[in-house]
Design brief:
elongated; alpha/beta
Length: 437
């Protein structure tokens, strides 16, 4: 069959299952789960994959699942959706404990399942004789650091990001191209292609002072809160030294400011991200932040313990994949409504995959308001769930048609910025625990 006929079959299958795809997206939205806790979401996705006839590997990284198709000596494409939510207690749709799908991951999973339905139930995938992995990935949001550290200490994970951990465990060893989409309020337009982003290093900082009565004997104490406040100001003083092109962002928060008000604070805990557009920029900014933290401690005679945690690497864009996806969106009626070249100073663990293989990470509309905010709202389910499913399925067909001719053409000229071994080495080099008296 010609490629347009295959695409039409996939689109018809998605339309036929429209209510099912919408139902899955809504159900996940109504039942948010935080990273490495996505038990019910994993079960829902696995059951749906099994209904499509897949053999499913469940709980691949604490949670998450994978369905594999094809065993041909041809490139393998991974279609990915993220399962976890964030915490935003102020949002009207959040749970009492704050869990809320404010980043569109429920739409990603619906799009993942929708694309699988379009390719499999239509028989298109058999016609293509292609290799595809459909993967529901846990833990994209870099939150609940203490919980993830507890999993690490128990040996259940090494890295906090779900894709990072999957890379380590070899789930992407035979994958050649990876693709997914993210949600975004794109204003008057409907989608965005050409995403680039910052990477970051996570930090946990502990200032250690000396307790004393805050009213009658403050001179006998060492104020860890003063050390932290000075350190934050020191970080601000570094900002003019960051290169403009590195788009550095440093944003600390204090998670513990002391114990009781009438005791000089002897322990103050902070968390911080150091973000940059390049890996080199991340490392340079991190050294300057460490220097600022130490100076705050030295000024009041406190000690400081700094723990660096591997965050995520910057997303690299691959124009040839963006162009394929853009053409499919235009075929679906979005011509003239697509923004090109999206510049994000936030971070995604999909950036780690982009360092190893060609990747596609467009942004699809259908929402209003900023991600992770109280204004976030799904306003166009057709675009968010159905159009996204169709565009993903069509792009897979483009990549696998005619013995994966397009994929082979892309891979022929591709040199990865890092090997898997280099990538893991860089991540492990970041993790350090430093103590300064």
């Amino acid at each position: 069959m010609d490629i347009e006929s295959l695409k039409m079959l996939a689109l018809e299958a998605i339309d036929k299952n429209r209510d099912k795809i919408l139902s899955i997206g809504r159900k996940i939205y109504d039942n948010p789960e935080l990273g490495y806790k996505e038990v019910n979401t994993t079960k829902l996705v696995a059951e749906t994959f099994k209904e499509l006839g897949f053999s499913v590997e469940e709980n691949i990284v604490v949670t998450g699942c994978r369905a594999r198709t094809g065993n041909y000596d041809l490139p393998r494409v991974a279609v990915i959706g993220e399962m976890d939510c964030i915490s935003c207690k102020e949002h009207p749709n959040s749970k009492e404990t704050g869990e809320f799908h404010g980043c569109g991951h429920n739409m990603q999973i619906a799009g993942l399942i929708g694309s699988a339905i379009g390719l499999v139930s239509s028989g298109v995938l058999e016609e293509l004789k292609g290799n595809v992995d459909f993967i529901a990935v846990p833990a994209e949001e870099f939150i609940e650091i203490e919980y993830k550290e507890s999993l690490r200490k128990k040996g259940k994970i090494e890295f906090f990001g779900g894709k990072q951990e999957m890379i380590r465990r070899g789930y992407f060893d035979d994958v050649n191209i990876a693709m997914m989409f993210h949600s975004l309020d794109v204003g008057e337009n409907k989608a965005l292609v050409g995403t680039v982003s910052n990477g970051f290093i996570g930090k946990r900082i502990r200032f250690i002072g000396k307790p004393s009565h805050a009213g009658s004997a403050p001179d006998k104490g060492v104020n860890a809160l003063n050390a932290a406040m000075l350190a934050i100001n020191n970080v601000h003083a570094q900002r003019e030294t960051f290169k403009e092109e590195d788009k550095v962002r440093v944003h600390p928060i204090i998670t513990k400011g002391g114990d009781v008000v009438n005791v000089v604070p002897s322990e103050v805990v902070m968390e911080c991200y150091v973000r940059s557009r390049t890996v080199e920029g991340m490392m340079d900014a991190n050294k300057k932040v460490d220097r600022a933290l130490r100076a705050g401690a030295i000024a009041v005679g406190a000690a400081v313990e700094i723990t660096d945690i591997p965050g995520y690497f910057p997303i690299l864009k691959y124009d040839y994949l963006d162009n394929i996806f853009k053409n499919n969106l235009e075929t679906l009626g979005l011509e003239g409504k697509i923004t090109e070249q999206g510049d994000f100073t936030g971070s995604f663990d999909f950036g780690d995959l982009s360092q190893l293989m060609p990747t596609l990470h467009p942004m699809i509309g259908g929402i209003s308001g900023s991600l992770h905010s109280t204004e976030y709202k799904i306003v166009d389910e057709e675009l968010a769930y159905i159009i996204s499913s169709k565009a993903m399925a069509m792009t897979v067909i483009d990549l696998l048609y005619n013995n994966s001719e397009k994929s082979q053409e892309i891979l022929k000229s591709f040199t990865p910025p890092m090997t898997k071994e280099q990538y893991l080495s860089k991540l492990r080099d970041i993790r350090k625990n430093k103590f300064f008296e």
